[in-house]
Amino acid sequence: MTTPPDEHPPAGHVHPTLDDPGIARVSEVVGGPVGDHAGRHPWWTPARVVLVLAALCFSLGMVQKSSCYEANWTNGDSRYTHMCYSDLPYLYTGRGFAELNWPYTSDPQVRDRYPAMEYPVVISYWAYGTAWVTHWISGSPDLRERYLMQPDELFGDAQVSQEVRRYVVVNALGLAALALLSAWLLTRVNPRRPWDAVFFAASPMLALTALVNWDMLAVALTAGALVAWRRGSPVATGILIGLGTATKLYPLFLLGGILVIALHRRRLSDLALFGKAAAGAMSAWVFANMLAYFTDLQSWQVFWQFNKDRAADLGSVWLMVQQATGHQWTADTINNVSWLFMAVWCLGVLVIGLRAPETPRLAQLGFLIVTGFLLVNKVYSPQYVLWLLPLAVLARPRLRDQVIWQATELFYFASVWWYLGHELDPAGGGEPGSYWVAVTLRMLGELYLAGMIVRDILRPQHDLVDRTVEWPESDDDLDTGDEAPPADDERELAAAR
């Protein structure tokens, strides 16, 4: 996907030093908030600054993984103590990509050697595609000798070891491009506030987690859906949500936010536009799954069965309660209670959305719904913070609240690796209570940000983002790209707050 040439933001765009008291105080180090006669640099537009920051941030993340790269992810201790673990190298050999096996093959010999991918289809396609590129740049090695080796021996093979590194590099370059695309798209969601995307582009959580797995694929599709929604194209929004759902489940919850917005506006035409978004999402999801579904149904079902049967796992409240009480929850019990909680949580989001004096923004509702899902999910992998990041920076673009929330995520990120490396084990034995503190703080951080967003919805005067129209008035307004007229002068808004 290519991006059109960058453009200057509309006249009168919001400057963060005038809009956010926290940024205003920080700006004193470099001369204070922007003045009345400040001009614009002819080349350094906000979008370009955001892209540079995203590139630097992602590069720092690659450097942070360098110790594991040098050891080729064979040092079981340093990958946790240095917090540089990644799933990518292990899945290259553990899912048959070292032998360039199609992830949805029905070949019984392949299935005897390797389990099927436990990820949604778009991630599986990407993993296979980058494996193909890795084999190509490695000179298309002869695979016959590998067929004679046991799968657990491949990781130690010298030739495969070099391919593992190349595989990580190929994926890192692809994910870096997706991070840049995501940052650029976030500058386009609200053209009067392109600087809000800095909270994403310069986020320490982006640097630390972007290479843990392939979640950046879903992040880019989510950012694209938010832009399509802002531009008044429900079909394009739905298509991107559907592709995102075929990558990770959580983009599906954006449809819930769209439904709340439609119900808030209380017009049949709005419900019809929601139907277009839902139809687009379903069509895109079905299209993305067709190749895997018809290639090998049994392999396609692995993702769904794996998540259904999964027990309480890393970072979840379920695991914390199990360790604290000694009671083991069955997968069925966790599933039932989780979905019941989600139903109540979504009902609460609906009530909040309907009671709002003004139509809530999609990023706000999306953050609330995804947060509810993550609070009771059976696992909270460190990279799941990326699911919330683009929604969070648009829903509540304020330095203080972003620092508070991301600090709790950062603390959890460090703690989970030390927990896996047994660094948090008590000297006298027993369960690691400090790990429970990290899980609890992470959840409290999410609830804190959710609480601030709820306040913004119910009391719009606290919302930093001016309320421009996010929903087309009629079918004639679709795909025009027209922007709502700017609100009152930013200085007056800042003074009022």
UniProtKB/TrEMBL annotation:
Subcellular location: Cell membrane
Biased composition (Basic and acidic residues): 1-10
Major location category of this protein: membrane
UniProt keyword NAD, yes or no: no
Record keywords, A-Z: Cell membrane, Membrane, Transferase, Transmembrane, Transmembrane helix
Region annotated Disordered, chain positions: 1-22, 469-497
Membrane topology (UniProt): Multi-pass membrane protein
TM segment ranges: 43-63, 167-186, 198-229, 235-261, 273-294, 337-355, 362-380, 435-454
Ranges annotated as biased composition (Acidic residues): 472-491
Family: Belongs to the glycosyltransferase 87 family.
Name this polypeptide is given: Glycosyltransferase family 87 protein
Organism of this sequence: Nocardioides taihuensis
